[in-house]
Amino acid sequence: MTDLYENNFVPFLNSTGDGGFSSNTLLIIEHQRNSDGGLINWHDPVRIRHAATGKYFQVSPKVPTEGEKVEQVKPGESSLAHHHFEITLTDDLLSAATIFTIEAFYKFHAEELAIKVNSSFRLRSTVAEAYVSALNENYVFANEETNKKNDSNEKMIGTQKKSKIWKKLGLSEKPLDEDTLVLVRVRPAHAENLNRVKCVIPLFNNFIKSCENGVLVNAAQINRVLRDLILFLHELPESKYDADPMTLDINLIPPRQKVLKDQRIMELLFKLLSVIFTPNSSGVQVLTLDEVKSNPKNKPYLTLCMLSYRLIKQIIKDNTECRQYISIPKYVDFMQNQLGYGLKTADTLMELFRNNSYLLERLTDSNIQVFVDLIKNPGKMSRYMNFLTVLVTCNERPLAGNQKKICDVLMKNYQECVIHSQESQKCQLVIDIDTLNRMDDRQGPQLVSVKEFLANTNEDLIDYYVLQIALFSELCLGRNNYCIDIISQKFSYDLCFTVVSDESLDSGKGFLIRSSFMKLIKTLYIDVDPFEIKAKVQTTRSWGRFIADVPTALPEKKVIAKGIEVEMKEITRGHETPRELAAKKNDFTELK
After folding, report:
1. Residue 40 in contact with residue 46, Cβ under 8 Å?
2. Is residue 57 within 8 Å of 293, Cβ to Cβ?
3. Which helix (H) or strand (E) holds 463?
4. Who contacts 240 (Cβ-Cβ below 8 Å, separation ≥6)?
């Protein structure tokens, strides 16, 4: 396998047992002269090329660590010490250190001239005259540095995940059993996916390099690439090839999501989204977020940002491995800083947090404050209220800590973020449109009925109110008494029941309000202490009672028990029951 280590790709042996297929494990065996074709035979000189990077395996002198003294010798010298060398990657095709031979592990394989698929073999360096072997030294990869919790609680708490440890590849003078490899054929689809993804990486790198130099490059080509990658993630019929990538959301293909993750496309996208708005070393900044948002001339770059966030969302959607890959404070804080500029960042963040226990259990006040500020400043937007709903549950399991934090923020500290409603004298729901429209110069609340609210309010604010009630029901989920005590002061049982039983709210947005109050009344007044769930009684058929009600004589007929027909001519009390008759035939299965 190959991965980045200190900004360089290095080969290693995965020893942590967390493998599985990865596009970084694909290798290509070539003849010494890559123009030669045909079969590869045992002991033929070959080169090993890494499919993802295009680099070749080579034997190179080991770089000594601090305080270590290593005698500097070159491959081919008589004083070669095998432990002085390791396997690295190189672009030098003409180097003799890149030549290896393939030796059979089993003798009966060696008797055959050509190498077959699933053959066991060892790699032997022709220059060093030694075998490729796993060393006792390791590359240690940590996902990210730990962000320690501070008193101000300004950043998300990051707990260091389990580090991945991979063994370095070196040389061994003697062939070892544990260094045996197996030649496995790669599915054509895997190779095709890798080739399709790796060809766009240079385009991203060139665009990023130009922006770092302060040069604003035409974004049209990158936008086409991003659109194609979004479509690449979906299994589309021919009629959908011209679909809008911003709304397309069907039939995601997990292997393709993993290929994009393995080839670090998400890292390139974050770097691209950062370099456009960050001054370079000379102080030159290509664009600002405000310019992209407000200036129509910058629409191609606005589209670029929207497509980038959309692609990240589609890569991590319903894919735990890809989601965990970017579940680190660096990326979360970066995306939160770009909220509110119309880049579709909130949708991506929502997908990242949804049912992500690693992030949700480490949520801080500052993370919640970011979304509350977006509700408070630009105005009430349903997507931000929906995001708060995502933060309080994980796989339908309530998170009591997050419930309490969000309840305090909305019901105590930032009540202006809530569309207030109350109970009228006739026990009807009325909504305060003063808080809805933020008209602070009015005196007193401006109360309207639900029907007036539905008739005179735009759909996004209605959705905001529906999601707000749904959020209140999620805050009370799991019998959270702290939230129940606060929310029950705003919504009485009679009020909730009146809304639920209002048959005039039977369609459209009115039905959504009605259903949201149904969820609220369940978590606020039904599934609460001291009520308990009564288990259903598992009953079985009582044959004795059934026979007791049978008359002394029955006409000739058939009784069917579990698909088994039992003939009966006459049944009287005290005689054999249908159960006993069937048991004699050994065909009866007990009914439950």
Report:
1. yes
2. no
3. helix 459-475
4. 234, 248, 250
d(CA 152, CA 4): 34
Q: Give the number of other Cβ atoms within 10 Å of residue 560's Cβ.
A: 9
Q: Is the pLDDT of residue 506 over 80?
A: yes
pLDDT of 80: 46
Amino acid 381: pLDDT: 79
At residue 10, φ and ψ (nearest 5 deg) are -130, 145
Pull the structure tokens for residue 417: 């973020």
For 215-250, the DSSP string reads: ----SHHHHHHHHHHHHHTB---GGGTT--TTT--S
Q: Give the rounded percent of residues in the chain with a pLDDT score beyond 70.
A: 77
Q: What's the chain's average pLDDT?
A: 81
Contact 300, 223 (CB under 8 A): yes
Q: Please report the pLDDT score of residue 542 as a whole number.
A: 62
- Count of CB atoms within 10 A of residue 469's CB? 23
- Angle at CA 584, nearest 5°, toward 583 and 589? 20
Tell me which residue of 348, 274, 340 sits closest to 310, measured CA to CA.
348
Structure confidence at residue 147 (pLDDT)? 41
Listed residue (457, 409, 412, 413) closest to 431, CA to CA: 457
Q: Is 481 helix (H, G, I), strand (E, B) or coil?
A: helix
Please tell me the distance from the alpha carbon of residue 379 to that of residue 375, in angstroms, as a whole number: 5
Angle, CA 479 vertex, CA 478 and CA 482 arms, to 5° = 120
Q: What is the tens place of the pLDDT at every residue in 244-298?
A: 999 888 889 999 999 999 999 999 999 999 999 988 877 788 899 999 988 899 9
CA atoms within 13 A on the CB side of 431: 22
Angle, helix 220-232 to helix 299-316, in steps of 10 degrees: 20
Cβ burial 84-117 (10 Å sphere, 16+ → b, else e): bbbbbbeeeeebebbbbbbebbeeebeeeeebee
> CA-to-CA distance for 526 and 214, rounded, in angstroms?
61
Structure tokens at 509: 């947005």
Amino acid at 566: V
Tokens of 457: 């309010």
Q: What is the DSSP letter of 143?
A: S
**Percent of the chain whose predicted confidence (pLDDT) is above 90:** 43
Can you tell me the distance from the alpha carbon of 512 to that of 466, in angstroms, rounded to the nearest whole number? Answer: 7
Distances (CA, A) of 140 to 4, 13, 89, 358: 11, 12, 18, 22
> Which residue stretches of 139-264 are H helix?
188-198, 201-212, 220-232, 254-262
**pTM beyond 0.90, yes or no:** no
Q: Which sign does the torsion angle of CA 16, 329, 223, 276 carry?
A: negative
User: pLDDT digits over 107-156, tens only?
Assistant: 766 667 888 888 899 999 998 889 999 887 776 654 444 343 333 344 44
Read off the pLDDT of residues 354-404 as tens digits, 9 standing for 90 and up. 999 999 998 888 888 888 888 877 667 788 888 899 999 999 899 999 999
Distance of CA 114 to the CA centre of its chain: 44
Q: Is the per-residue pLDDT at 420 higher than 70?
A: yes
Q: Does the CA dihedral 110-114-115-117 come out positive or negative?
A: negative
Which bin fits 396, alpha (ψ -120 to 50), beta or left (φ > 0)?
left
